[in-house]
Amino acid sequence: MNKKTKYRKEFEKLIYECIVDKFMYLKDIAKVMNVNYDTLNEWLKVDSKYFKSELSESYHRALKDKQQRIIEKTQEQLYKSAWGYEYKEVKQDSQGDIIYTVTKQAHPNAKACLDILARLNPKEWDNSIKIIEVEKNNYDNMTEEEIDRELQQFKDEELLQMLRDEIEKEKNIQRS
Fold first, then answer.
1. Cα of 25 vs its chain's centroid, Å
2. Is 5:34 a contact under the CB 8 Å cutoff?
3. What percentage of the chain reaches a pLDDT higher than 90?
4. Pseudo-torsion of CA 123, 125, 131, 136, nearest 10°?
5. Is the pLDDT higher at 57 or at 163?
6. CB within 8 A of 151, min separation 6: which ones?
């Protein structure tokens, strides 16, 4: 017969740290707590007679904070990608000794720049994103009416004509 694990107050802090700092799943957290997975689930269920409100609050706060942390880290990486960055590449021999270190440059990513600009200044930059999306489509298999419907998202007639010309050039290249 399995011995039941008693709930301890420190589980509240532990569950928070495991989720936010280590991005662990509930099954793995149960192992760290030395608690049966089903028991941990019972402690978190509101309608359970074993419900532990403080643990549940800590769990839900951790999920929310984890999501915010992911958003912040992703934004940081998007900006880094947009503007480019330096990084060090280390070459080691089989014993792990450093042979040399080279500083390299990751070039700015135009798509990341456009994404940022489109969100910060959509009136000015929204069409740039749409141009990229238009370029990805396969117009060779579309009728003229379908292409016109696709291009109606652009309000600027000059831009619209430029896109039509580009699509026509692409179709001519693919035919030849």
1. 18
2. yes
3. 41
4. -120
5. 57
6. 134, 160, 163, 164
Question: How far apart are alpha carbons 40 and 36 in whole angstroms?
Answer: 6
CB burial of 63-73 (b: ≥16 within 10 Å; e: otherwise) equals eeebeeeeeee
Q: How far apart are CA 102 and CA 92, in angstroms?
A: 12
Per-residue three-class SS string for the chain: CCCCCCCCCHHHHHHHHHHHCCCCCHHHHHHHHCCCHHHHHHHHCCCCCCCCHHHHHHHHHHHHHHHHHHHHHHHHHHHHHHHCEEEEEEEECCCCCEEEEEEEEECCCHHHHHHHHHHHCHHHHHHHHHHHHHHHCCHHHCCHHHHHHHHCCCCCHHHHHHHHHHHHHHHHHHHC
1, pLDDT greater than 50: no
The answer to whether 66 touches 58, Cβ cutoff 8 Å, is no
Q: Return the sign of the alpha-carbon dihedral for residues 83, 133, 139, 158.
A: negative
Looking at per-residue confidence, does 160 or 168 come out higher?
A: 168
- Please name every residue paired with 103 in a beta bridge, in sequence order, or none if there are none: 88
CA distance 159 to 5: 67
Report the alpha-carbon angle 97-85-133, nearest 5.
130
Mean per-residue pLDDT, 8-25 = 95
Looking at residue 126, its pLDDT comes to 67
